[in-house]
Design a protein that fits this description.
Shape: elongated
Structural class: alpha/beta
Order of helices and strands: EEEEEHEHHHEHEHHHHHHEHHE
Number of domains: 1
Strand order of the largest sheet: 8-6-9-4-3-10
Oligomer: single chain
Number of helices: 13
Radius of gyration: 20 Å
Helix content: 40-55%
C-alpha cells in the first residue's frame, strides 16, 4: 500500500527578509509562524517565491558558512517523464556529499499491516459508491468514472473521502500525471553517480483507519472537489509543470492541490505532515554538518509555505537564499 506525500500548512505572514543576506554568525533567527491546520500549505512565505535567474527549475540554497545545501523545489504533480533542463542539477550532483529526497511510497509495518488491511476492507464495504449519491451528482460521477475507464464496482465504498481519494488516483493515472517525477529520475542519477541518497518511509496504518473517522461532510467536500478536478482535466497541472521547468516559481505554484487538501481532512494528518517536514529539516541540518555541498529535493509548497521547510530552517538561524540571488 502507498500514500503520496502532499500535506500542506498555512499561517500568519513572516517578515525580516533582509536577514536572509546576513552572515551566518550574525543571522537573527526568524520566529516560526503558527500553523493553521485547515489548509496546511495554503499561505506562502512571499519573499521566498522568486523567479529563477539560471536556466531550468528554480533552486534555493541553505548554508551555515562552510557547507551549502542546494534545494530544488519539486512539483507536487506533473506529467510523467516530463522534460526539464538538468544541466545545473548535474553540475551540482558532481562532488555532492548527499542527495536528500522526499518520501514516495509509504510502508505499512508488519505489526500495522493487519490493522491497515482490516480498515481497507471496511472502507470497501457497501458499494458501489454512486448508489449513495443524489441524481445530479450520480450522473456527474458516472460520466467521470466512465471517462477514466472504470466500472461502478471499482468504487465499492460508502465513504465519500475514500471514494474521492480513489477517484483522484484513477484520474492521475489515466491522465499520465505523477508526483514521483522528477524525484524518481534524480534518485536514479544520484545512484548512478554513486552519491549517497537519504529517503525516508513511514507507516500509514494509522491514517488508513483515520479515513473512517473523517466527518462525512468533510469527506463529501473532498469528493466534490475531486469530481470537479476530473471534469476540468489536466490543463492546470500541465501549465504549472511548464512553468516549473522554466524557473517560474509562482506559475508552478498554481498547480492543483485537490489530493493534498483531501488528505489534510483526515484526523491525524496534520501531525503526520509536521513529522515529515521536521524529518526533512533534520536531514538538511545533518547534511550541513559535512563541509562541501549537498542536494535536497522538497515538494514546492511544503518548501515555501509558512511553517514549511525553509521557514523552519530560517527560524533556526541558517542562511537561506532565493533563486533570484544566484
Amino acid at each position: 500500500m502507498s500514500l503520496r506525500y502532499g500535506l500542506g500548512r498555512a499561517t500568519l505572514a513572516l517578515v525580516l527578509a533582509a536577514a536572509l543576506a546576513a552572515p551566518a554568525a550574525a543571522q537573527v533567527p526568524i520566529p516560526l509562524a503558527r500553523v493553521d491546520p485547515n489548509d496546511p500549505d495554503g499561505v506562502l512565505v512571499e519573499e521566498l517565491v522568486v523567479m529563477g535567474r539560471l536556466p531550468g527549475p528554480a533552486w534555493w540554497t541553505v548554508s551555515d558558512g562552510d557547507t551549502t545545501v542546494y534545494v530544488l523545489g519539486a512539483p507536487s504533480l506533473a506529467p510523467k517523464r516530463m522534460e526539464w533542463d538538468r544541466a545545473l542539477f548535474e553540475r551540482r550532483l558532481e562532488g555532492a556529499n548527499l542527495v536528500v529526497l522526499p518520501f514516495q511510497d509509504v510502508k505499512v509495518t508488519v505489526t500495522g499491516a493487519l490493522g491497515a488491511a482490516f480498515n481497507f476492507l471496511r472502507l470497501r464495504g457497501g458499494g458501489p459508491f454512486e448508489a449513495t449519491l443524489e441524481p445530479d451528482a450520480k450522473a456527474r460521477f458516472v460520466a467521470a468514472r466512465e471517462r477514466l475507464g472504470q466500472p461502478a464496482d471499482h468504487y465499492p465504498t460508502r465513504n465519500p473521502l475514500a471514494a474521492g481519494l480513489r477517484l483522484s488516483v484513477d484520474y492521475r493515472e489515466r491522465m499520465s500525471l505523477t508526483n514521483s517525477d522528477p524525484t524518481k529520475l534524480i534518485k536514479l542519477l544520484a545512484v548512478k553517480a554513486k552519491v549517497p541518497v537519504s529517503q525516508k518511509s513511514y507507516d500509514i496504518g494509522p491514517l488508513m483507519g483515520a479515513i473512517l473517522r473523517t466527518p462525512p461532510a468533510a469527506g463529501r467536500a473532498c469528493f466534490d472537489e475531486v469530481l470537479a478536478q476530473v471534469e476540468a482535466g489536466p490543463g492546470v497541472t500541465q501549465a504549472a509543470a511548464r512553468a516549473w521547468a522554466q524557473g517560474d516559481v509562482r506559475g508552478a505554484l498554481g498547480n492543483e492541490r485537490t489530493y493534498e487538501r483531501c488528505i489534510a481532512l483526515v484526523p491525524g494528518a496534520q501531525v503526520f505532515d509536521a513529522r515529515v517536514k521536521a524529518d526533512q529539516v533534520a536531514d538538511i541540518e545533518k547534511a550541513l554538518k559535512t563541509p562541501g555541498h549537498a542536494i535536497a529535493v522538497v515538494p514546492l509548497r511544503p518548501l515555501l509555505a509558512q511553517g514549511g521547510v525553509l521557514d523552519q530552517l530560517r527560524a533556526k538561524g541558517f542562511i537561506v537564499k532565493t533563486p533570484g540571488e544566484e
